């Protein structure tokens, strides 16, 4: 066990090689840290760049999905991590001081740590990550997967703390490289994306609370697709009332799908115009 790293740093890359060339050196300089890069179908030669220049980096390639799924990428990285603690950080964020020293001095049991300077970055013990099943892979496109992950951790009784010290520094960039387009699984703009993911999180939690059952990944993917469709239709037609979100929760309750033979129990969400 002494040969195992204390921290596994996990970053993902989908056509962010320019950022990674700046940030990866700051990752590999860290002491007692295992660096993992998940190349998620990057078309810019990320794997070759790492193999040629950073032999100690653990490189994982995902080649079976043309649309970047950051949740799946992070989960794949976590499955290959050896550290007691996982540190998820985006490819556009540099580390500017010692991560190991901070962890050694400040880490606490049953707590995950967010960064004020990079809210998508988080330090968490591996066993707590596994406790909540990692990131929800139903999130495709920009935004929401980190808020959902933090919410489920708090729901599971895990405490959270905000790191205010200057450990990280983000690289500024515009929205053109975010996954906002429909071809990338997005909803077209940040406002719609945030509203869609917030609705999904609330619907998912309502189903769990009302049925006392977790939803399978397959059902979560279907739920996300349905919500995206309703929001997109409402946005195009400007008819938000007709595009309400109706969820039949009877298949999730005791008795499963056989319950629908006897009754149907629905939750209906009337979504307000998010642009008003």
Structure summarized in a few sentences:
The chain is an alpha/beta fold and 276 residues long. The chain has eight helices and eleven strands. It starts with 6 loop residues before the first strand and ends in a 7-residue tail after the last strand.
Task: Describe the protein in words.
The protein is of the alpha/beta class and 276 residues long. The protein has 2 domains: 7-175, Spore Coat Polysaccharide Biosynthesis Protein SpsA, Chain A (Alpha-Beta Complex); 188-269, no CATH class. Helix content is 36%, strand content 20%. It has helices at residues 17-28, 46-53, 70-79, 99-106, 126-131, 145-155, 190-211, 217-237; strands spanning 7-13, 33-40, 58-62, 85-88, 93-95, 111-115, 118-125, 159-163, 168-170, 245-248, 266-269. A 7-stranded mixed sheet has the order 3-2-1-4-7-6-8, sandwiched between helices. A two-stranded antiparallel sheet has the order 5-9. The protein has a two-stranded antiparallel sheet with strand order 10-11. β2, α2 (46-53) and β3 (58-62) form a beta-alpha-beta unit. α7 (190-211) packs across α8. The protein is globular and about 60 Å long.
Mean pLDDT reading: 90
Radius of gyration, taken over Cα atoms and rounded to an integer in Å? 20 Å
Q: Helix-strand pattern, N to C?
A: EHEHEHEEHEEHHEEHHEE
User: How would a textbook summarize the main sheet?
Assistant: 7 strands, mixed
| Shape by Cα distribution | globular
* Tally of individual domains: 2
Strand order of the largest sheet: 3-2-1-4-7-6-8
Number of helices: 8
Q: Can you count the beta strands? A: 11
CATH homologous superfamily designation of the largest domain: Spore Coat Polysaccharide Biosynthesis Protein SpsA, Chain A
Q: What is the level 1 CATH name of the largest domain? A: Alpha Beta
| CATH fold annotation of the largest domain | Spore Coat Polysaccharide Biosynthesis Protein SpsA, Chain A
Cα(first) to Cα(last) distance is 56 Å
* Helical content (DSSP H or I, runs of 4+): 25-40%
Please report which band the strand proportion falls in: under 5%, 5-15%, 15-25%, 25-35%, 35-45% or over 45%. Answer: 15-25%
Any low-confidence stretches, pLDDT <50, length ≥5?
Answer: none
CATH architecture of the largest domain: Alpha-Beta Complex
**Could you say which structural class the secondary elements and strand pairing correspond to?**
alpha/beta
